[in-house]
Amino acid sequence: MRLERPREWGACWLALEMWNFLGLDNFWSKHLTPSRKGTNWLNVLKTLVTYRWISAGSEWRLHRQWFKSSAMADLLGEDDSIALDDTLYRCLDLLHAPKKDLFSFLSERWKTLFNISYDVLLYDLTSTYFEADSKDNERLKKFGYSRDKRSDCVQVVIALIVTKEGFPVAYEVMPGNTQDRTTLPEFLKKIETVYGKLNRLWIMDRGIPTEESLKKMREHNADYLVGTPRGKLSKLEKQLLKEPWKKVQENVKVKLIREEKELYILTFSNGRRDKERSMRQRRLRNLYERLKELKELKEMKKITRDELLMKLGTARKEAGRIWNIIDIRIPMKNEKISGDTFTFKINREKLREQQFKEGTYLLRTNLQDGEPEELWQRYILLTEIEQAFKELKSDLHLRPVYHQLDNRIEAHIFVSFLAYCLQITLKQQAKQHAPGITPRAILEKFKTMQMIDVHLPTTDGRELILPRYTYPEKDIALLLYKLKLKLPNQPPPKIQYQPNKCGADLLPKTQ
Question: Which part of the chain is the Transposase IS4-like domain (predicted)?
């Protein structure tokens, strides 16, 4: 008896179970028909999505390493040909057309499976970067505001809409230089086309809606609850000071004022205040120490005025808003560098203003009713979309992107989106039937289930091959029971003929 080819089975099987639970075969069978040469594009897509969810990497790694170490061929009834690099790339090229139809299909499935409603939608943007230069003829890869702190890299922008439970409704890939405020009108039209106009609340972070877009939303009777830049807080300060605080959580309190046809909700969080205070103190200390270092260099005449300005520019970039707290006098062009021409001191009034705002953020809505604590509870649902971005970037390794062509970049993000759909589906199932465990933790447990080939010789010279997955441990068996999942029967045996042997093979082996 021999044991051969240990390979990952449990996680692959779980991914295909989530795929089947969503009924994705019903959708993709209409859009991915087999090729004339017999390539089953549906199985290729399943392989790409499973790989992205379980062990994300490049398509080249899938082809060279992962597929052979997994049990995907056994589960799909395929051979290694579906993981050829050219086959994988050709499948990516087939994915651009049915995106809108898929959004509608998934929305109906989640409504049926989990009773998901679409009366509250969360909208936000993120970016993912490329460590490569952009060419003039490229539509997507552009320099722009980087949420990954990589302004030196070209990027693409991804706009995402999710429900309050975190289920994705739609997404769009846009050029990396797209400004946040320009993306909203088009998305409003798309969602209204699919789901209708009325009885929907849009929740967005500050920076996305403009005054013009909010005005249009009011004209179209679209409700919104959005974050507001802190500059608005100064204009409403006198009115807000008159209102009492209302406690909504142990460390959170809110107050509300009405202005024209909108409500403004000022929120104060002890945790946020402590975080912002710590950041402000650290940056202010670093900036002050840096200015002292520059002053010492100047007095020793080790730098010129131009060098001083360049170093101040670097310090300003690192300090951020803290820069405005310090009043700095810089030598004029015709002035000599001295202790009188380069001075700095903390502006106490500006420091007090910043201390007053620490821990606060301002919300606005055109809803005419609702308690402030209820509105705040709705706004913090934005953590669901932040979690979606986090999972896309960390769990599903949205970056790095190994593709250069625009259509391949979009296909890469599309596959990541499908993998996230599997993850959020498992997350919801766990929430209902096995609360307290994350989908990634479940996936890691199932990764321990392996498949192995048991080779047994027969009396007639042939060999019986038994592909067998390992019996689940107690914790996995409990998860299977809780999630109402049933393992399949063991695969049927295979018969393999031994290769012909010559007479020398039958002679006793010498030491």
Answer: 137-422
pLDDT digits (tens, 9 = 90+) for 225-276: 999 887 777 788 788 888 888 888 888 999 888 887 889 888 999 999 999 9
Surface-to-core class of residue 352, CB atoms within 10 Å of its CB (0-12 exposed, 13-18 middle, 19+ buried): exposed
Alpha-carbon distance 269 to 272, whole Å? 5
Contacts of 67 (CB under 8 A, 6+ apart): 47, 51, 73, 80, 83
Q: According to DSSP H, which parts of 56-146 are helical?
A: 59-61, 67-69, 72-76, 85-92, 99-114
Largest Cα–Cα separation, the chain: 102
Give the separation between CA 73 and CA 467, rounded to whole angstroms: 12
Query: How far apart are alpha carbons 307 and 241 in whole angstroms?
Result: 46
Query: Are 27 and 469 spatial neighbours (Cβ–Cβ below 8 Å)?
Result: no
What is the Rg, in whole angstroms, of the alpha carbon atoms belonging to the chain? 30
206, 227 in Cβ contact below 8 A?
yes
Among residues 396, 440, 437, which one has the least CA distance to residue 420?
Answer: 396
Half-sphere exposure of 394 (CA within 13 A, CB side): 7
Between vectors from CA 127 to CA 107 and to CA 264, what angle results, nearest 5°? 75
The percentage of residues in the chain with a pLDDT greater than 70, rounded to a whole number, is 94
Which contacts qualify for 306-315: CB closer than 8 Å, 24 or more apart? 308/337, 308/342, 315/287, 315/290, 315/291
Phi/psi-derived region of residue 312, left when phi > 0, alpha when psi is between -120 and 50, beta in every other case: alpha
CB 142 within 8 A of CB 182: no
Give CA–CA dist 149/498, Å, rounded.
60
Tokens at 330, concatenated:
């810089």
Beta-strand (E) ranges in 286-413? Answer: 326-329, 343-346, 360-365
Tokens of 108: 């109906």
- Cβ within 8 Å of residue 448, ≥6 positions away: 10, 470, 473, 476
Q: What is the 3-state secondary structure (H, E, C) of 272-286?
A: HHHHHHHHHHHHHHH
The 10s digit of each residue's pLDDT in 51-68 is: 999 998 899 999 999 999
Give which of 202, 197, 198 is closest to 214, Cα–Cα: 202
How far is the C-alpha of 229 from the C-alpha of 207, rounded, in Å?
7
* Confidence at 469, pLDDT banded by 50, 70, 90: very high
**SS3 (DSSP) at 220:** coil
**Which DSSP helix (H) or strand (E) runs through 211?**
helix 211-219
> 341, 315 in Cβ contact below 8 A?
no
As a dihedral over the C-alpha atoms of residue 82, residue 88, residue 92, residue 93, rounded to 10 degrees, the angle is -90
The pTM of the full predicted model, rounded to 2 decimals, is: 0.83
Helix (H) or strand (E) holding 190: helix 184-195
Paired tokens of 136: 């003039």
CB 470 within 8 A of CB 451: yes
